[in-house]
Amino acid sequence: MTISQPSAFRPRILVIGSGLMGLWPAAILAQKGCAVTVLEANPCATGASWAAAGMLAPASEAGETQDDPGSLGRFGAHSLSLWQGWAERFAGGGHEVCWRPFGALLSAFDEQGLQRLERTHRAAMALDLHPKTISIETARQQEPALSSSAIGALCIADEASVDPRLVLQALQALLQSHQGQILYDHRVVDIDLQTDGVHLRCDHDQHFEADRVILAAGFQAGEINGIDAMTARLHPVKGQMLELSVPDNPIRAVMRDAHAYLVPRGDGRMIIGATSEPGLEDARPHEADIAALHARAAKVVPALEQASITDRWAGVRPQSVDGLPIIGPLEATGRLFANAGHHRNGVLQAPASAHMLCSLILGEDAGPFAAPFSPARFASC
Ligand SMILES: Cc1cc2nc3c(=O)[nH]c(=O)nc-3n(C[C@H](O)[C@H](O)[C@H](O)COP(=O)(O)OP(=O)(O)OC[C@H]3O[C@@H](n4cnc5c(N)ncnc54)[C@H](O)[C@@H]3O)c2cc1C
Fold first, then answer.
1. Which domains does the chain have, with CATH numbers?
2. Closest to 341 in 3D by CA, of 366, 314, 365, 322
């Protein structure tokens, strides 16, 4: 839906949630001259964006389940194409985000794993991400730490990774450099659409008013009074992760098999993920699950068996009922917008989602990807 506005329309904006889906459009809109305030329930960002591994992996993710990447995969590939420019921009502002455009190496250890590689190859071909099925010898030349018991390998040259915690810091700085503000410990409990604007009430009875509101509250986006449109549209999917100390940085690319992924930060740390536990919203790691992930990572790179665990955590992914993100106006007057439901791919899709959402808010052309992700798709349900 395109909402017509005068071209220089610069609304007052309130954003609910300081994860990537809140901060990214907040920073863009502040830069365009809007007065932006972000309201965050917690004392600091600790949501899914903080917990994420930071893989930018449209084909590897699509290949988990299908060989046609669909609208989600194409949107992810488009977003990946925006990432380098943003990483350079953050770096130019003094905020390196651990941008690592060193590709992904997927390996298989059984027949099921080989089928997954084939699906991923097809998805990566469809997305033009330069996949190459390679022999184990070639794979071990690229990544000598790869286990010799792997029976198949696929390299996707164009996938990448970032450190999402550094991205959150970079976005905060960008927002604040354009006079935007973040108010922590402000949990929004009510949204009320009035003729003079949108009114928000927080849990300590603070009141706020704006022309436009962005709902970017992660898996809890449906829990605020007054937005029935989101209730029952989002479900939590818990994910547990760990960090290993790897002083010799044994791998360069992101590596993954069917059960675990290994994301090197290049500074002596490696992130291992992740469980996928639908319906759970407690962000606590459990030692047995962490140990199982560690063991699985050591199957891919045996040297990791000796690596010590330096941290473990969990986050809750926001999954929509149809698996697609929900981006756009939530009601007919176009004052309340959603940027939510990005499930496993929110870091990847964050820049493209933010650009699309900001165009919709400012009444500009939202581009070719908007329709499948519009909240309007639920109107007939
Ligand atoms: C373990 C794990 C690994 C992942 N790995 C990857 C990856 O490698 N690549 C990738 O692309 N994606 C990954 N993801 C997915 C990605 O992290 C998410 O899709 C994305 O971060 C969602 O961002 P968000 O801003 O919607 O949610 P969040 O980051 O959860 O932010 C929502 C914020 O809203 C706040 N909030 C909630 N309710 C209210 C309220 N009422 N008032 C005010 N504030 C409120 C919360 O406190 C929170 O800070 C991973 C996720 C997890 C959990």
1. 13-49+165-233+322-378 (3.50.50.60), 103-160+235-319 (3.30.9.10)
2. 322
Band the pLDDT of 226: cuts 50, 70, 90: confident
Instruction: Give CA separation, 218 vs 17, 72, 256, 338, in Å.
Output: 7, 18, 26, 10
Lookup: tokens for 191: 């949204």
pLDDT of residue 39: 98
Which H helix or E strand runs over 258? none
306 class by beta-carbon count within 10 Å (0-12 exposed, 13-18 middle, 19+ buried):
exposed
What is the dihedral sign for C-alpha 326, 233, 73, 21?
positive
Write out residues with Cβ below 6 Å of ligand 1. Answer: 16-22, 39-42, 45, 47-49, 51-55, 187-188, 216-218, 220, 224, 239, 241, 273-274, 315-318, 340, 342-348
Q: Whose CA is nearest to atom 50 of ligand 1?
A: 52
Distance CA 12, CA 28 (A): 13
pLDDT at 9: 72
Q: Which of 15, 18, 201, 286 to mutate to test the pocket of ligand 1 (most atoms within 8 A of CB)?
A: 18
Q: How many residues does the chain have?
A: 381
Q: Which atom of ligand 1 is nearest to the CA of 314?
A: 1
- Find the DSSP H helices in 234-376: 287-300, 346-361, 370-373
Q: Which tokens hold the place of 2?
A: 């395109």
Question: How does DSSP classify residue 42?
Answer: S
Task: Residue 92: count other Cβ atoms within 10 Å of its Cβ.
Answer: 8
Kindly state the average pLDDT of the residues 284-298. Answer: 98
Which of 21, 23, 49, 237 gets mutated to test ligand 1 (max ligand atoms within 8 A of its CB)? Answer: 49
Q: Which residue has the tokens 């759970």?
A: 280
What's the gap in Å between 168 CA and the centre of ligand 1?
Answer: 11
Task: Inform me whether the pLDDT recorded for 1 exceeds 50.
Answer: no
Contacting residues for 195 by C-beta, under 8 A, at least 6 apart: none
Q: Omega of the bond prior to 274 within 30 degrees of 0, cis? A: yes
- Each as own residue / partner, the long-range contacts of residues 302-305 (CB below 8 Å, 24 or more positions apart, any chain) are 302/145, 302/147, 303/145, 303/250, 304/244, 304/246, 304/250, 304/262, 304/270, 304/272
pLDDT value, residue 142: 97
